[in-house]
Each structure stands twice: as C-alpha cells, then as structure tokens.
Amino acid sequence: MDQYLVYILRCHDGSFYTGFTNDLERRLNEHNIGANFNCYTFKRRPLELLFIQKFEDVIQAIVYEKKLKGWSRLKKQSLVDGDFDRLKILAECRNATHHKYKPE
C-alpha cells in the first residue's frame, strides 16, 4: 500500500516549509541539493526535518498539507513541539463576533 507523508522543515533563515511527498528521502535530497531553483527552500538551505505525518490516503495527505500551510508559525511550532495544549489555545477563534464573546 502506498504511503504519503506531510512534513515540516526548518529553513536556515528560521522559516518553516510544509510539503507533501510519497518518497521522503528523495524529496529531502531534492531540497538539500537545491534541485529546483524556484522552490521556496532553494535560498534557505541548509534545512532541518522537524515533523512527519504519515497517511495511506493521498487526498487526506493533500488536505492536511494545505491545512498546515494556512497555519501561523506559532501553531506550526506548537505542532512540532508536541505542545497540543498550546495548539488548542492558538486554534480557538478570537473573533469579536464569535459566540463565545456575545452576551447572553
């Protein structure tokens, strides 16, 4: 059965890169040698692998990757650190129109 991986890299400049692959070793090698001049990581090497999540369903992996790409740096850092309490707090809606903030 195929396996798909969503991963987070820390770039040399401290930024995060989130990606998706079915061959992590090949993909990390491509990032590290700078195989794609247009890739976000090209000018941000060396890179450090921080997080991997495995999926058997390609659609689930793609959806998860897109979800992570929309997260703030703090949320990604909390995921990488395994700090799920902080991640839960950061995921809470802080909008003034949220039902939590409306008087009853």
UniProtKB/TrEMBL annotation:
Residue intervals of the GIY-YIG domain: 2-78
Highest taxon of the lineage: Bacteria
Signal peptide residue numbers: none
Gene3D superfamilies: GIY-YIG endonuclease
PROSITE patterns: GIY_YIG
InterPro entries membership: GIY-YIG_endonuc, GIY-YIG_endonuc_sf, UPF0213_domain
PANTHER family in UniProt: UPF0213 PROTEIN YHBQ
UniProt record similarity statement: Belongs to the UPF0213 family.
Name listed for the protein in its UniProt record: GIY-YIG nuclease family protein
Organism encoding this protein: Christiangramia lutea
